[in-house]
Predict the 3D structure of the following.
Amino acid sequence: MWPVIISVLIHMTLLVIAGMIDLRENIKPLDVLSISFKDPAIEKKSISKKANPSKTKPRSAKSSKEQGRPVGDDSWREDTIDLGSADIKYVTYLIKIKKKIMEIWTYPQEAFENNEEGDVVVKLSIDADGSLAGVTLVSSSGSAHLDEAALRVVQQSAPYEPLPDIYNLSRLHVLASFDYKIMD
């Protein structure tokens, strides 16, 4: 009987010790899908090489504000910046835009079911009051589901915060790249 009791105690001690050791330190969690922003300046080169020209035709959802602006107005100022830019002037504002988009951005269900992946580059135009003047598809992923999802999330995130007065801009154009990847 003593050998059984000793064996049980030894096994229980080994189980307790094994439970204390975390062997998962070097294992990163498995991502089923990934959606991330990338710097569009880098991505445009690789996208234009592999994309079919018929699929990269710019589409746009413009408001009446973007379609026409005063031609002779010298006070009208605009600038274009990449969402991933590290320009000290814009970085704080760009982080706020990115955060607002990331709160509602999801992988489109239809694209996930069809294993569709790709990079979508869009240009969003933000007026000084923070309203979205328009969003344009700059480079297509080749998937209508992914393209429409990227355009839709930018529109649903509006309105954005007003442009800081120090920018002295009437409109800020922001290029954003949406990278849709399904991970194994």
Residues 29-35, 39-68 have pLDDT under 50 and may be disordered. The two ends are 52 Å apart (CA to CA). The domain at 31-64+76-182 is CATH 3.30.1150 (Fusion Protein Consisting Of Minor Coat Protein, Glycine Rich Linker, Tola, And A His Tag; Chain: A; Domain 2). Strands lie at 33-38, 59-62, 78-82, 118-127, 132-139, 171-182.
